[in-house]
Predict the structure.
Amino acid sequence: MLNEKNKSLLNEMRFYIQSHFSVSDTKASEILMELEDHLLTAQQEGKSFEQVFGQDPKSFCNEIIQELPATSKWEQIKIIAPIVPLLLMWRFLYGFSGELTISLYENIVYLVLSLALFYVLFIILRAGSFSSKRNSFWMMYGLGTFVLLVYVGFFLLSGRILPASPSLVLHDGAAYMTAIVSLVVILYSLFGSLLNKKR
Amino acid sequence: MFTQMVRGVLEGCLLAVIGEEETYGYEIMEKLASSGFVFAREGSIYPLLLRLEKEGTIASTQRPSPSGPNRKYYHLTLKGEQQLQLFRENWNELSQSVNNIMDRNYRKEDDA
């Protein structure tokens, strides 16, 4: 088992390397597995994290990223694609109220905005990797508020700016069914991996 | 220039170590260190291993390790063996030339 310091620094490296969507995820996982194995053996022999990865782990990670093969556009789409239905489906939970209105333009803008936010968040979090805990805490707090404000702003303004039609309105049974299916899909995507592990 | 030279030499030595027998990252580093290579950080071999694998001079297989995570064992490909042979020849030639010059300088200093 890695000690606390090694584990947390390795996790930082993991996030930093894997948040570069331009590199192959399979190869990135492979090299991270090797680095973990190396660090574990080094730790057992009484060596420090710095002896293995140097004083500046960020620059070490950059060297690794430079040598990792680039990912194909198809692979990038495969990573992002599952997020799209999830982003939409939690909005369909509103169907539990008995009436669900799905407005085309509002949903398109919402999707584009969410994906853009997602991308910006990753870039900011990546830039903040390897900073001290205190900075990270304030950064998370700031980012959380920022995301919240963007969404609140969007929902307040979208009704006024964007045309309401074309839109799909579902009542009673149809609305409940849509909401239930959405809930199942969301829960499965969140906890499905746990179920698979138990089996 | 010095860094580039060391990197080239290190690549050749990595091929030689992997050519001896199938081996993994930590063991490669230990073998290089026991031969006198000094590492500012041990992890430096990994970007090189990635590059060699990308170029197709080495290949790997994954097997469970006693420490837990899977371990990647490297071996030379045919291209790697040819590359190693080429490095040996070049190195012999280069080291001989360098030694000749260094010896001549050394003798001159002695005479003076």
In short: The mean pLDDT of chain B is 90. Chain B touches chain A through 21 residues (CB under 8 Å). Helices of chain B lie at 2-20, 25-34, 45-55, 78-111. Chain B is about 65% helix and 10% strand.
